[in-house]
Amino acid sequence: MALVLGGLGCGLLSAPGSAAAEAVEVDLDYVCTNGVARTPVNLEVTLTLQTALAVGQPLDIRWGIKYKDQGRFLSPGLFQPGARVSATGAVGIGGPWSGELKSLGSQEQARLPDGDQLTLPELISGAVTTTAPGVIEIKPRRLLIDFTPPPSDATFNDDDPAVSYSAEWTDYNDRDVNFHDVGRDVHATEANYAEAYFKFTGTGVDFITEQDSRAGKVQFSIDGRPGIPATADASKHPDGSHAGVANQGNYTLWGMRGLPYGQHELKVAKLDDKWAMVDAFHVVTEELADPPKQFRATCEPVLKPSTIRVVVGSPTQSPGQSPSSGPSGEPSSSPSGGSSGPVTSPPPGGSTPTPTPSKSPGGSSSPTPSQSKLTSVVVIGSPTPTITTTITLPASTPTSPQVKVTPKGGAQTGEAPETPRSPAALLIGSGGAMVFGGVFSGVVLRRRRAAHANGRSRTV
């Protein structure tokens, strides 16, 4: 059984129905720019997938990625352990319909000094389950590398280099230990509209001062916009009652959360004739649901990738029967349960048409435009689901798709009829399962490496 990658950029694969499933490994070179790629970074990418499947088998696309030369992705700052590098590889899926399958993977990082090398995930994977015979065309697309900082918090004293002051402030050191000031020092002023500035990176910030009945009101703004709340008074409790205390340092007067991760500037301005103190600032980075966009590196293939064809065989000719197949081997038009059957979406009128195939002179069913139904196609990678397009499937699908066959080591000996365009390869999300051989009875994998345009090949 042979796999041929054609010179026109398409792979002609073995005919379905064989007990042995073909696998192909395609080598690609990618170049990455922006984000954590401070200079262009070259990657070696190996795509691995099966090229002949029985109906109901998962199509699992795996990406092996590694650095190609001395270029590296670099940490955008100093981070404690727990930062994460994630990779998302996309392939276009064509044939009777169009969509995209994303393969995902991530790698947790150790403690990272600023500019330190980032460790890549060794393998990223995504899978879908096939539910009808047909030919699926796979075309490698972009690869995204994201960096997510870990949750963290840090306290910055009033004399930290990240803090600056207008001329009206005075630095007081060696304060009484009973005041509990951070670092036993503060900056203080009695001048109206005196300002202090603090630059930080994170998603939240707190202003720390001394609570004192002699203190006054201060105003807060972040990146030129009013803080929430905009003002606070160190002479009062949070409920607005008067604070009958003096020199209670390390007191969090004000704080704000939910900022977009990145660099921000907090401005503190004194509003009245009472005095104000800056004891410290506290910065937090909350758990991030999505990687910050400013760290994203985008990778593109160096050369135009070849198209890889995956043949999905008929249940009557392949090992294993599709759970959604009827006794005749054709997919059932209305599955009774489970996630592996087609998902039928009603048309705008609210009802689902019932296909009624008509017989052709040769005795086979041939669909007409009025016999088509809408089917939602869901593609799921691990761990994030991705929903692709909605397509139209014919009501009747032949159960014996034919493709060209080239025996290994020999010349072309014959050619079966061309695959009709009416068969549709319906993909239903398999929950991100990474199934790759040894799961379905009677299926044996033979892994092969197909040469890409750069001429590298290897057979295992």
From TrEMBL:
Region (Disordered): 312-375, 389-420
Key word Metal-binding present: no
Comp. bias regions, Low complexity: 313-343, 359-372, 389-401
Keyword check for Membrane: yes
Signal peptide positions (record): 1-20
Keywords: Membrane, Signal, Transmembrane, Transmembrane helix
Compositional bias segments (type: Pro residues): 344-358
Transmembrane segment boundaries: 424-445
Gene3D superfamilies the record matches: Galactose-binding domain-like
Protein name: Peptidase
